Amino acid sequence: MAAVLTRTRDYLQEEIGLKVSRAKPRTGNMDALQLRDVTAVVCTDGPIKLLIVFSFQRPLLEHIREVVTATLNVLPEERELFLRETAAETMNFILGHATADLAEEGNDMRLSPPVVIDEEKNILRPKKAIFTSIEMATSHGTLDINFIGPSDLFDQKLNILGNEEAQGGNMHPLKVLIVDDSLLTVRTLTGMLTELGHLVVQTAGSGAQALDSYRQIKPDLVTMDITMPDMDGIEATGGILKEFPDANIIMVTSHGQQGMVMKAVKAGAKGYVLKPIKPEKLRDMIARVFKT
What we know:
By secondary structure, the protein is of the alpha/beta class. It folds into two domains: 2-153, CheC-like (Chemotaxis protein chec, 3-Layer(aba) Sandwich); 173-290, Rossmann fold (3-Layer(aba) Sandwich), CATH 3.40.50.2300. It contains eight helices and 14 strands. It has helices at residues 2-15, 58-68, 79-104, 183-195, 207-217, 233-243, 258-267, 279-290, and strands spanning 22-26, 32-35, 38-45, 51-56, 110-111, 115-117, 121-124, 130-138, 141-149, 175-179, 199-204, 221-225, 249-253, 271-274. Strands 1, 3, 4, 5, 6, 8 and 9 form a seven-stranded antiparallel beta sheet that branches. Strand 3 (38-45) and strand 4 form a beta hairpin. Helix 6 runs parallel beside helix 7. The longest helix is centred in the first third of the chain and has 26 residues, at 79-104.
């Protein structure tokens, strides 16, 4: 951790010309990590098995891109591609030097190629995982360096793996996918579901993302908003149920949308909870769906 911190500060200051105004470790009882705009993830192998996660605010990553591509002819349509490449190569450069430092001390460490995630994402900590984070602030934005271990509890896109041990041994929580474009609702539901002993393994911010997310993680339960960009919750519900007829979907809606939610229920959604969401109503609906 110290080697990565030192090499990151050196890179930002010496190669990019940015002064690091703050490097604040966040340790202790961290139950969640909130990823920023663009994130690169590397898995380590050797004596230490970790996921190392560099999560960039977009203005900072854009500034780094402009510096490292200053001598290149980057076309406008290539700028987003180079932004992702910058996240991966920045991480490669820093970790390459940090692992060289560790090798000199007799601690070999192999690194996987970086995987880039270009969306904000909330990562809940499984029972057996440890989260450690360093927040590095610069004049162009913030970089979070996160260390997640052990790495075998997650895939490289930071989805929690579905085996029993990854879910916390005897806890047996439901794996939940939250589909909602409101960060407030996502965090409210995450808190309530966690208190009920369940595990939010992924969130999706639009109906269009819901089916892809479902295919990736195959959750036990989906909470589905109605009004979202790109595709509404009714259409997303129909798409999931067409491909996965046994999916358990609970609609999250306001009083004024009860007519719409009935369409989703007729299409196969298992029920609904009304906003503002009450913990006991959510608990009772889940119990009804799973007959517990």
